[in-house]
Amino acid sequence: MRSLSSLWLSLGFLTVVGCKHGPEIRSYARTLEMVLDNGRASERPLTPPSTFEMLLRYDPQLSGYKPLAMRFLLAHSGHLIFTIYENSAQERPGKVLKVIDGEYDPSLISSGKDGKWVLEQLGLPMQKGPIWIGIHAVGGDDPRLWASSNESSAYQRDPDPATPFDSTRIRRTPMVRLDVLPEGADALAEIEAASGGGRAKGLR
Question: Mean pLDDT, the chain, as a whole number?
């Protein structure tokens, strides 16, 4: 059996396995990263309690997609809760899809310039519209995320549901990014060359 080799491509991941029956090629689908920040971590705002939860709206503008993971830059350690919501008919956070309750220790803190992102897997089912990520602090240890100074689809929950949602927009954007897999791209493309025939099968 010949040696195993792996090729990392800029537009996808390709693994080639050699054996006496010919190469087996597995091509993994491309994902998209949704970014609201401007790439410059310049602020460390207070993280509010649940009553005033920070809310980030992500709209991939795809016919369907699976939220795979989120990543963020931690500025100060502590207890954070991330809540992922569906988009409601009123264009507000709706049904809860997932809750991530995390104690983030000092080893995960980023300087804001070191590229040290915390990754949380989501593994959510197919979505058809925007989703929201809510962020709030628990306890008294002052956990914080890095934020950029640009205004985006970032809001703060108001205890009064009658408050116009646009009026709750905040002028900074937490450094939280969302990875999604477009609909139809999650099938693993496999090419198996038949022994001696060079015939490929299983291509999707």
Answer: 82
In terms of Cβ atoms closer than 10 Å to its own Cβ (0-12, 13-18, 19+), residue 54 is buried
pLDDT band for position 28 (50/70/90)? low
In angstroms, the CA 175 to CA 39 distance is 8
First to last CA, the chain: 27
129 neighbors 87 (Cβ within 8 angstroms): yes
**Please, which residues bridge with residue 201 across strands?**
192
pLDDT band of residue 9 (cuts 50, 70, 90) is very low
CA geometry: angle 159, 138, 99, nearest 5 deg: 80
Assess contact for 174 and 145: CB atoms under 8 A: yes
The pLDDT confidence band at residue 166, using thresholds 50, 70 and 90, is confident
The predicted model scores a pTM of 0.78
Contacts of residue 29, Cβ cutoff 8 Å, sequence gap at least 6:
12, 181, 182, 185, 186, 187, 188, 189
Mind listing the domains of the chain with CATH numbers? 5-28+187-201 (no CATH), 32-182 (2.60.120)
- Nearest 5°: the CA angle 163, 165, 167 is 80
Higher pLDDT among residues 84 and 7, named by residue: 84
Contacts of 166 by beta carbon, 8 Å cutoff, 6+ apart: none
